[in-house]
Task: structure prediction
Amino acid sequence: MSISYRRRLRAFAADTQVLCILGSKGGLRSLADSLKSFGVKDSCLIYDGRYCLGFRVKTRELGAILPRVCEHSDRVCIGSDYRGIFSEHGSVIIKSGALDVLSSH
Result:
């Protein structure tokens, strides 16, 4: 009698791109302040008729960040191409370190 074992491989990207779309500067600063405690990397600010805050976060922390992000944002886009698309059609206001700049004011 032979025993067969099935192994599952669970693989995912280490980082996930997130783009938060907001209509007001006040909401933008509130979002930046709430994200400072998480390991958010590589943040930028784009203006395309609305404010778009893009950043990378560890995929494992995405579940903890989403409630805060959804509370302060009008829309949330998760994926690798949204930041590039909004950058092409909008104006990049802060190319890197946007969370540091926004939360310091």
